[in-house]
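Severity: low
Component: inverse-folding endpoint
Summary: output formatting inconsistent between runs
Steps to reproduce: submit the following structure tokens with default settings.
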């Protein structure tokens, strides 16, 4: 069942298009939003979180019309913005109480029980009474999730939640997001394809304000099914090939460079066809060479 429906959405900044005729449907679970810089991801998330107006289109969130029922929609929302600023003199616990009060949770007992549960869920209980200025980037992001979840929202918007996290923080964070997806609608924008791979059932790809793909992660990988190839050359020849080729990735293996290329025909005499990944599908869609 769809919980969020976007129909013919258009947004411009001083007549420059940022989103063009977007049609999207989401349901319970984690929905990934992928796209290069300037694709329109943050613009879409700001619109969904009611902080940015739009010119055209219809957006329905849990049966409420965003254009008419903004106040009610806000009551369903939890939002972690891309740039999450926190008052660093607060402790984590104080900050969550402050946000809870701002969200209208005036009853201290109810607010306290949610704050304590969320601190535990995002694994911040041991540091809850430490000042935020002593927190790592990952801890601040986890606090960001906790503040987004205060008030038990049904629709959670996370703008690049794993940006700047180290690998162990990222894994911990993914676990929190996966659990949320069991009974919430979560939309998550990222540049990091492995976040999508592990957390998201469905995904959309935006580029220059246009929606290029929406569907399953497996379906995205299949967009590169026409040809993903790998071949190796002596490492000394890396620069020559790197200049000539349009490749998805390259890696060093001993004295060789291994190139990964999307092409209909084998790009090199020793090229071997390989199984497409989500990243291959994403690159094929963005570069307009998808099948
Ligand atoms: N306040 C603004 N005024 C004018 N143009 C804007 C504004 N905010 C965004 N834009 C433009 O709208 C387009 C979409 O930007 P947006 O920030 O939504 O992209 P994004 O996919 O979130 O990018 P990133 O991954 O870099 O955060 C870009 O061309 C951007 O320059």
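Observed output (run 2 of 3):
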């Amino acid at each position: 069942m769809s919980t969020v429906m976007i129909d013919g959405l258009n947004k411009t900044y001083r007549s420059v298009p940022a989103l063009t005729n977007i049609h999207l449907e989401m349901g319970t679970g984690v929905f990934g939003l992928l796209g290069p810089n300037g694709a329109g991801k943050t613009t879409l998330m700001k619109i969904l979180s009611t902080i940015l107006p739009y010119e055209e289109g219809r957006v329905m969130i849990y049966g409420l019309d965003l254009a008419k029922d903004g106040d009610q929609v806000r009551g369903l929302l939890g939002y972690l913005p891309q740039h999450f600023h926190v008052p660093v003199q607060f402790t984590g616990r104080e900050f969550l109480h402050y946000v809870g009060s701002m969200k209208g949770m005036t009853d201290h007992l109810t607010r306290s029980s949610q704050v304590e549960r969320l601190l535990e869920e995002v694994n911040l209980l041991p540091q809850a009474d430490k000042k935020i200025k002593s927190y790592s980037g990952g801890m601040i992001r986890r606090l960001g999730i906790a503040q987004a979840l205060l008030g038990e929202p049904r629709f959670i918007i996370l703008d690049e939640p794993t940006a700047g996290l180290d690998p162990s923080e990222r894994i911990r964070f993914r676990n929190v997001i996966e659990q949320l997806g069991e009974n919430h609608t979560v939309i998550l924008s990222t540049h990091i394809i492995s976040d999508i791979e592990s957390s998201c059932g469905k995904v959309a790809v935006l580029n220059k304000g246009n929606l290029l793909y929406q569907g399953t992660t497996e379906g995205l990988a299949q967009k590169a099914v026409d040809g993903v190839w790998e071949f190796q050359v002596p490492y000394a020849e890396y620069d020559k090939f790197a200049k000539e080729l349009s490749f998805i990735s390259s890696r060093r293996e001993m004295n060789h460079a291994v190139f990964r290329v999307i092409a209909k025909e084998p790009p090199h005499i020793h090229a071997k066809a390989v199984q497409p990944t989500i990243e291959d599908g994403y690159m094929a869609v963005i570069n307009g060479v998808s099948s």
